[in-house]
Design a protein that fits this description.
disordered C terminus; alpha+beta; 14 helices; seven-stranded antiparallel beta sheet; two-stranded parallel ribbon
Length: 485
């Protein structure tokens, strides 16, 4: 009887054990299926991300090709939706002729596109530019004088800020200069060594604008303002007080910070508009006379320019050639150079032998915020420059003559050494995306023009910042791609 009971118990345990085994096998199969599905989803997601990356890189190539033919026409690349918005890279319709177009479809279609996007300084809500930005339209933190940095930073300083614009500007110059002596309001190694953690002052040029965050007094709030996604649009989280990062003032306006107005890349060649060599004004007088005679037939004007170059103190602005000259006998000689001559003079003559000129501001593309940092200019002058810039064709703005005619001799003398009329390096942001996807890639690049060839000198992926640009739909639609806040 005992053996029968034991056998009955054993048989009674088989079923629960089998059920347990089946449950475990089912769980193992489900787990395996889950991991396979997750891997497949990750593979598909990676493939889509890769395709959007390729679309964004196609956008960079489009910009390079476009600038080859249109670099001198700033209106063509500043805001051009026909060339830079919703450009098709691939479409399932297999209509090859539609590649590179901005075709729209009535029915939902799988398309990979790119848009070249940039901040529109005239709007901070839904409008962006579909174009590129001239780096010379910004202030170069490696060359800008203290006065220019102070003028830019001052409007962004709050009463509650610990540091003044003068202190921050001096600290910027101390960071980039090669000496160890602090400026009156600056900071050198003694300050940075006492921080927690301490770090060394660079005493060298900035490599990126973001490096400013290491400089005493420069905070993320001052650098980026409320525009944490750096798209120039007032996103909901940038106008909700302290509810969601960042903390903002809830005033309905976007504080862009100083970041959009700064660069480390602005550069121009020290050549004339036709790429010929400029006359070095402080060279051998005989050579200078010969070179100028080949440019202008007015012998008395040539003699005056050569004699002015030999005078002391040395002139520091080509606009000073309009000033009277004191002769050897102590008399004053009126200048034969007029405002009308400033066009050819600034194009053909140089006060430097350096092949490159760093940090010059392009008067043809600079924003009002940057123009306000130029010495001597008043708001009326800036408005006149902006109006003339909008009316005068780009082919007539190839020298600084049009600027001199607007601001007059005295103000032109102050600003001429800081100005150029050419764009050589460009900031490019491209968003690659699919009409049928929420996936996107946002690339940032700096392009340098070497003759007709555009070279990438800087490239990084900004996808982690989000896009928040109106690029998935035609111009005017307020819906934003990648917008998840």
């Amino acid at each position: 009887m005992v053996d029968l009971a034991r056998q009955s118990v054993r048989r009674g345990m088989i079923l629960p054990l089998m059920l347990l085994v089946l449950v475990l096998l089912g769980m193992l199969a489900a787990s395996g299926s889950f991991f396979v599905h997750a891997d497949m989803s990750a593979t598909r997601s990676g493939a889509r991300r890769f395709q959007t990356r390729m679309a964004a890189e196609a956008g960079l190539e489009k910009v390079k090709l476009f600038l080859r033919d249109h670099r001198l026409d700033d209106a063509s690349w500043y805001d051009n939706p026909e060339q830079f918005h919703r450009v098709i890279v691939w479409t399932e319709t297999e209509q090859v002729e539609e590649y590179g177009s901005v075709e729209e479809y009535d029915e939902p279609t799988q398309n990979y596109r790119f848009s070249v996007v940039a901040d529109n300084p005239d709007d901070d809500e839904v409008l962006v530019r579909f174009g590129v930005t001239d780096e010379a339209s910004k202030i170069n933190i490696n060359t800008a004088p203290v006065s220019q940095l102070v003028a830019l930073i001052t409007p962004f300083i709050d009463e509650e800020d610990e540091w003044t614009a003068e202190q921050i500007a001096d600290a910027i110059l101390d960071w980039r200069d090669g000496d160890t002596q602090p400026r009156p309001f600056g900071a050198e190694a003694e300050y940075y060594s006492l921080l927690d953690p301490p770090y060394a002052v660079k005493n060298g040029p900035f490599d990126t604008v973001e490096e400013l965050l290491l400089v005493r007094g420069m905070t993320a709030d001052l650098l980026y303002g409320e525009d944490v996604d750096r798209n120039g649009l007032l996103s909901p989280n940038e106008d909700d007080g302290d509810l969601i990062f960042p903390d903002d003032d809830l005033d309905g306006f976007l504080n862009r910070g100083v970041y959009p107005f700064l660069t480390v890349y602005s550069r121009d060649f020290n050549t004339a508009a036709d790429n010929s060599a400029r006359v070095y004004l402080f060279g051998d007088p005989g050579t200078v006379t010969s070179q100028l005679t080949g440019l202008v037939s007015n012998a008395s004007q040539v003699d005056f320019i050569v004699s002015a170059a030999a005078g002391t103190p040395r002139i520091t602005s080509l606009g000073q050639l309009m000033d009277p000259r004191v002769t050897e006998d102590g008399n004053s000689q009126a200048s034969s150079v007029t405002l009308a001559d400033m066009g050819w003079i600034t194009d053909r003559i140089s006060l430097s032998q350096e092949p490159d000129r760093l940090g010059l501001i392009n008067i043809n593309t600079a924003s009002p915020t940057v123009l306000r940092t130029l010495p001597s200019l008043e708001e009326e002058d800036i408005q006149l420059l902006l109006e003339a810039r909008a009316e005068v064709p780009s082919e007539e703005r190839v020298d600084l003559g049009w600027v001199a005619a607007i601001v007059g001799a005295e103000k032109f003398k102050a600003i001429e050494p800081l100005l150029t009329v050419r764009a050589m390096r460009f900031h490019v942001e491209v968003v690659g995306y699919g009409d049928h996807l929420g996936t996107m890639t946002r690339l940032e690049s700096i392009l340098e023009m070497r003759g007709p060839v555009a070279q990438i000198i800087y490239l990084r992926d900004l996808t982690n910042l989000g896009t928040s640009y109106p690029v998935r739909y035609p111009v005017g639609d307020e819906e934003l791609v990648g917008y998840t806040r």
